[in-house]
């Protein structure tokens, strides 16, 4: 069953009330489990980025015969997150002492950035290369990008096909300096600054440390900056 966020909370509250009235139940019923999960999922979705979700409930019957119970409770086992495959705990709160788990699956959709055109590996994507689109977030193996500003200073580590979601693990920092590059040095000391040139001995993104061999053969360490520049504080 699919839910948008506000109606989900209303439906969940009604179904949870119905479960409380079923005091002699030996096991949870599907509607109560779905209502419980929907309530949890809606609370998670309220954190932002989610447009809708769908709850699928597995077998609600326990695997063995249970002692009579006057009142059952549903609970989230441990630090359960209702995202993809998860479980709902069912326990007897009055009349017996037993617990079992019901498998559930929560599919979640939200808005993310997808490639608008084919993007090659090692390319630097810009805002015009992507568009916003609703995708199933629970199918993605890592955090997806939601704003084009997250592309700034990043290079694609792999090719991305049109319509494919951009994930954080597809990007790496763009190198401001590559090993072997001729770079401009800005050597800064107390009350003075000197410009020089040299050759980078290792690669570095903006803000990372790099080593440079100067024209005089001395090796200095500085901070890489965009535009093949290196700042060397003294």
Describe what is shown at a glance.
It contains two helices and 15 strands. It is mainly beta and 234 residues long.
What does this structure look like?
It is built from two helices and 15 strands. The strands form four sheets. Strands 1, 2, 3, 4, 5 and 6 form a six-stranded antiparallel sheet that branches. It has a five-stranded mixed barrel with strand order 10-11-13-14-15. It has helices at residues 5-21, 30-45; strands at residues 2-3, 50-57, 71-75, 84-94, 99-115, 130-136, 154-156, 171-173, 175-177, 182-189, 192-200, 204-205, 209-214, 219-225, 229-233. With 234 residues, the protein is mainly beta. The longest helix is centred in the N-terminal third of the chain and has 17 residues, at 5-21. A hairpin with a 4-residue loop joins β4 (84-94) and β5. The termini are far apart. The protein has three domains: 2-108; 110-173, Antifreeze-like/N-acetylneuraminic acid synthase C-terminal domain (Type Iii Antifreeze Protein Isoform Hplc 12), CATH 3.90.1210; 175-233, Roll (SH3 type barrels), CATH 2.30.30.760.
